Amino acid sequence: QVQLVESGGGLVQPGGSLRLSCVASGKIFTNYHMGWFRQAPGKQRELVAHITSGGTTNYVDSVKGRFTISRDNAKNTVYLQMNSLKPEDTAVYYCNAGGAYYPNTRRYSAGNYWGQGTQVTVSS
């Protein structure tokens, strides 16, 4: 079993930056594809970014050029660097592990492991 612990959320002004971290348990972290999802009040959860075990990344169009997902396998950690934040980025952000990756469509489907979520609020 993989357990995920997220941190780094908070309140930031538009145009600001935050860096989310997700620390995973276990020694097989390198074998897992990872993703960041977010859910705003009254909206469905959406995939923000993913990174495969091999380092392949993809992003939802609304965050391309602003967000960067990365991983440090030695620390069992995946990051989401969020720059140029907008009010519409406000949501609870969830780390996900163990999803399936489909190379032909560059799609990531959620795995069974989730973090507790960390609140990101972008407001002036």
The chain-level structural class is: mainly beta
Kindly state the number of beta strands: 13
- List low-pLDDT spans: none
Share in helix = under 10%
Quaternary state of the chains? single chain
Biggest sheet, open or closed, and with what strands and sense? 7 strands, mixed
Strand percentage: over 45%
Count of DSSP H/I helices: 0
Overall mean confidence score, pLDDT:
94
The span between the termini is 40 Å
What is the succession of H and E elements? Answer: EEEEEEEEEEEEE
CA radius of gyration is 13 Å
How would you describe the shape? Answer: globular
Question: How is this structure best described in words?
Answer:
The chain has 124 residues and is mainly β. Helix content is 0%, strand content 49%. It has strands spanning 4-7, 10-12, 18-24, 34-39, 46-51, 57-59, 67-72, 77-82, 91-97, 100-102, 107-109, 113-114, 118-122. The radius of gyration is 13 Å and the shape is globular.
